[in-house]
Each structure stands twice: as C-alpha cells, then as structure tokens.
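During the reporting period the student researcher (J.K.) took over the structure-prediction task from the postdoctoral fellow and processed the backlog of single-chain submissions. One of the processed entries is reproduced below for the supervisory committee.
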Amino acid sequence: MKYLLCWVTLLALLTLPGFAQAHKQSDSYLSITLNAGSSQLQGQWDIALRDLDFVIGLDANADDRITWGEVKAQRAAIESYALGHLRLASMQGDRRDDCALQAQQMLIDEHVDGAYAVLRFSASCHAAPRQLAIDYALLFAVDPNHRGLLDLRTDSFTQAAVLSMETPSIALDARSKNPWQQLRSFVVEGIWHIWQGYDHILFLFTLLLPAVVLYRDGRWQPRASLRESSTDILKVVTAFTLAHSLTLSLAALGFVHAPSWLVESAIALTVLLGALNILFPVVRERRWLVALCFGLIHGLGFASVLADLGLQPGGLLQALVGFNIGVEIGQLGIVAVLMPASYVLRGTVFYRRLVLPGGAAAIGCLALYWIGLRAFP
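J.K. obtained the following structure tokens:
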C-alpha cells in the first residue's frame, strides 16, 4: 500500500507545472543603462533559449540541441518577439513619450541554468527621462509564472526590480533611486520563489511532519503537548533560516560559487535523505541539526536568482535583504498552513501510519527522479 501510494503521488506531482525542475523557474534578465541628461538608452536582455524555443521554435532539426546556427537563422524572429513584448517610455510629469527600440547585436551566454540569447538593443527617447516607464509582457501568454529581473543603471546608482504577470509595469526615477520600491519588489520575489521551489517545500515537510510526533519503541507516537511540538518546529525553522541565509549571502556576494547542476542535485539529495529519515529514523530528536547542515546547500540554490542579475554592491544589498525577508515570510506561511493540521492529526492512525510513511515514500521517489534529472540530464 505504501509503495502504491508512492507511485500514485509521484505521477500526480509530475503532472504539475514546474515539478520536474522544481527549483529554477523561467526568468529573463533585462539590464538598461541610462546616462544622466541623455535621451539614449542602452539595453541588454538575456532570455533562455529553452523559452524562445517554446514560443518561436529554434530547434529546426528537432534533435533537442539548439546550435548557434539555429539561433542566427531565427535572429529576426527573436528580436521581433522580444522587442514586441517590451515598451520603454520617457516620463516628464504626466506626459509619456514612448522610446523607439532598435536591436543591435545577438550573442549567446551561459547562465546557471543553461544557455541564453543575449539581445543588445538601444532605445531613443524624445527627451531625457525624469522617470523611465517599463512595460514588460515577455512569455506571460504561455507562462504566467515567468519573471523579468530588471537592472536599471545610471551614472550614480543602480536600481533593481522584478516584473511579473501581476506587476508587469513599473516606473523608476532616473535621477534618484527609491530603495523601498526595490526592497518591496524583492520581498515579493522571495515569497514567490520559495512557494514555487517545490524541492525546498518538500525538504521542510520532511523535517516538520515528524515535529508533532516522537519515535519510540519502534513506532511514531504523538507528542504530549503543543509546547513540545512548537519548540521543535521553532528550532528547525530557525536553523534552516540561519543556514540558508548565510550561504545565500555569501553566494550572492560572490564569495562562494558551485556549479548549478551540483547544487541542484545536492538539494534533491537532501530531500531524499530527509524522507529516508522518516522511514528509517536515524536523527530522531535533533532534526534542527539536519536543517542547519542541509540548509547551507539550499541557500546556494536560493542564490541562483540573484547571481545572474549582476547587481552593483548597493543594489545587491537591498535585493539580498528583500529577497531573504521574502523567503522567510514564504517559509512561515508554509509552517502556518501545515502545522495546525499536523498537530490535530498527530494522534491518529491515519497520520502515524499513512501520512508519515506514505508521504515520505512519495517524497523520496520524487527526490530520486530529481537526482537523476539533475545529475544526469
């Protein structure tokens, strides 16, 4: 019964968008440079080849490999599609003047999650913008979870923002930056990121589901009080937060670097080990140590969102703080939903003999699939 549940749950999870990759979602990286007093802007837009292939069809010979020749053959289509989904406008008070976009160069670059088309373009505005309005619509028609990570650079400062289907437009002051606007944008991105990071969620599940029970005499038994369960949950969440905040900061600031495939494979391995610890308990009382050690790996995964943005130190610090706050808010939201139900059900046979082993088996099977997909793509 346990293993039947495992495979049924695994098949159900694999039908959900994003579960196969589970961590790195669809992002593009838009960088715009504006010189003080100038009506001319320079831009660079990095868009994943896999995303462009989905909407345009780059893989002409259908061999699951996109070559530079295939990208060059579709250069006009890529430029038309991309620039057709971006509008820049110079704002002078209530007056809005659209800027004319012109493609200049097409390159290829490697990001942490694969190859990207690098579209360099210029924008000619009627006047030097006091505010720059950006309207972003790339891929929203086919992927509502897509995000555009924006980096606006001027002579004296850098601003960053996240553009999504919910917030596709933004107006940034070209003369001085609004730190609260950037902070708020990355708080939202952090919340969204952990809620879409199914591997992070399932790892937390493997640590939080046993928090309301104890393993004694060869079986799971309910904890005696809410205080005991809450203390265990607090230790796990605090340890995980401290660990991933440390490596997220170090990686985003450039002090630590590891290959993306290795980090993603290691994250999947932590999920597998967490699930096995429910089925065959080894760490029974001090799961906060597991959260502390494995949280260091998850922090490297979180850092992948900020690593490719190339923010300058001032902008990076605000983005890092906002993103980390968002991750913690999202994490607390998961705890707030999961734990009341777990505590109420902890004494039932359903929870101790079905939810714990069946859920762990399903999570373990999915983690094995992720390991194979990431380590041997």
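The committee noted the following: The mean pLDDT is 85.
J.K. will present the remaining backlog at the next meeting.
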